[in-house]
Amino acid sequence: MVAFLRSTGSSLVLRRSEQICSRQRVNVMSAAGSLDEEPMLQYVLVRRDLMTDMQWPLGSVITQGVHAAVGALWTYREDEDTKKYCSQSGGLETSASFSGDISNQMHTVVLGAKNEAEMIKLAETLDNADKSYALWREHPENICTALATKPYHKSEIQPYFKKFRLLK
């Protein structure tokens, strides 16, 4: 499914996976306990070559990751894991309230891909593993710039991102 955002000239390519049944969840449980004890996290992968080879400003590169992350959260907003992740707002201060409790924060990992080909390869791997994500495509350049997963328990998604380094 592709959602075109005509006002910005960008598009979001979405991948929707099937619900994970409880039997499958048992198979990925950690030795320490159930998945409910594991942190929920969202991975965001941004292309490094946007900064190095293409000389994009830092703000523009950050924006690409934000578009993908928000796109994934919005698209999978009805998913139970996404609801749980979004309820972990311990680090969010708003004018409405601040509890001071930071023990239940959202966890987001921002990594860098070498280039578009490496990002597309990961997208194909995630497709084959039936993992949900959003892939941000910038227009008029028509290039994939960022990928963000829906929130998952760490053990369910981390293996797909082990080869990538933190974006610096």
From TrEMBL:
The keyword Hydrolase applies. Gene3D superfamilies: Bit1 (3.40.1490.10). It is an enzyme of class 3 (hydrolase). This is peptidyl-tRNA hydrolase. One of its GO terms (molecular function) is peptidyl-tRNA hydrolase activity. SUPFAM superfamilies: Peptidyl-tRNA hydrolase II. InterPro entries: Pep_tRNA_hydro_II_dom_sf, PTH2, PTRHD1. Keywords: Hydrolase. Its EC number is 3.1.1.29. CDD domains: PTH2_like.
